[in-house]
Amino acid sequence: MVDVVLMQGFANFMWLLSMALIVFSAFALLDAVTRREDAYRAADKKTKPFWLIILGIAFVVNLIFPILSFLPIIGLIATIVYMVDVRPAIRSLPGGGRSRRGSSSDGPYGPYNGGR
């Protein structure tokens, strides 16, 4: 009886850990999607397509494979590298590296202030 309870508790813990990894990798992937491509080059952190591919593979691996295999661990390492190295470097750039839509008053070099 105690063995069944312990195994069920371990299975629940592993399921929660797996869900946490999926959410973590999804957040990193969505964050990478919203950053400008030139911000990656300005921060000298590879390119946006490189990180999208790496984080996309990490997300899919976390969805498909159980947590006890080595592939989700590799995906976790890639996600951690993005979150603790690439993301802070991009966020430190002016504008935070976020993609933004230009307004109708934007000129080729930024917002037009009417000569003021």
Automatic annotation (TrEMBL):
Keywords annotated in UniProt: Membrane, Transmembrane, Transmembrane helix
Segments of this protein annotated with the region Disordered: 91-116
Keyword Transmembrane: yes
Domain of life: Bacteria
InterPro entries linked to this entry: DUF2516 (IPR019662)
Transmembrane region(s): 12-30, 51-84
Composition bias, Low complexity: 102-116
Coiled-coil region list: none
Protein name per the record: DUF2516 family protein
